[in-house]
Design brief:
Layout lengths: L19 E4 L2 H12 L16 E4 L2 H25 L12 E12 L4 E4 L5 E8 L4 H6 L10 E4 L12 E4 L5 E6 L3 E4 L7 E11 L7 E2 L14
Helix pairs in contact: 1-2
């Protein structure tokens, strides 16, 4: 075989779940912060996996506002998912959704989220505020992804390494990940004093002829009351 012969694969199949990172518009960030402050501290704790003292649910009014603000991102994600599967957008695909949960986390030093999945079909995490962890991460010595990192896990780890089974991300304010609810993920604790504020939620897809909406209130397991 000639040394200058170029070898190319016949194909490189797309494999694994579709997840996407977005920059979020300022109106959504501001609205989520202001509305989250009006909810009772810890009102969402019993329904969530986080080892976090203050996780709060949003009101029905807040959720209805969120559905309208979030629709462009769900539309982008749905079409991206279609392209990821190398299919044509047709009547079998939809960007309409029913919001089944929405909550805000106030994660402080030494708190964390263990490996977990969500209910529904699609979930997300929006980072509203993040403490500066640069110094702590620079001083970290170890083999893990390090303080404060968000990690997505897919498939089994291997040794010797022959596959990439995790994606690591250091949260940045104003950014968001959208991904399938059954994709396992976790958040490593940090020691730096400060609060990371993030918003997550779950939804299911609706038929394309329907309008996106909030799940009926009688099925809501996270019913916060406003702070008095």
């Amino acid at each position: 075989m000639s040394e200058d012969r170029i070898i190319k694969p016949v194909s490189e199949p797309v494999f694994g779940p579709y997840l996407a990172r977005y920059r979020v518009h300022e109106g959504l960030i501001k609205g989520l912060k202001e509305r989250g402050m009006k909810s009772i501290p810890g009102s969402g704790n019993k329904e969530l996996a986080g080892v976090i003292d203050d996780q709060r649910g949003y009101s029905k009014e807040d959720k209805e506002w969120f559905v309208k603000e979030f629709q462009p991102y769900m539309s982008a994600y749905s079409r991206g998912s279609c392209a990821h599967e190398q299919r044509m957008w047709d009547h079998n695909w939809t960007d309409k959704f029913e919001l089944i949960a929405l909550w805000i986390n106030y994660m402080k030093e030494n708190e964390y989220n263990p490996p977990h999945t969500h209910n529904g079909q699609v979930t997300w995490v929006i980072f509203l505020e993040t403490p500066d962890l640069d110094k702590e991460r620079d001083q970290y010595v170890g083999r893990s992804v390090g303080p404060g990192a968000l990690t997505f896990h897919y498939g089994e780890a291997s040794f010797p390494k022959w596959t990439v089974n995790q994606l690591t991300y250091l949260p940045m304010p104003g950014e968001m990940w959208i991904f399938p609810t059954m994709l396992e993920h976790s958040v490593i604790p940090f020691k730096t004093k400060g609060t990371r504020v993030s918003v997550s939620g779950n939804c299911v897809f609706m038929p394309p002829h329907m309008e996106s909406r909030v799940m009926p209130e009688e099925y809501d397991r996270m019913k916060p009351q406003p702070v008095k």
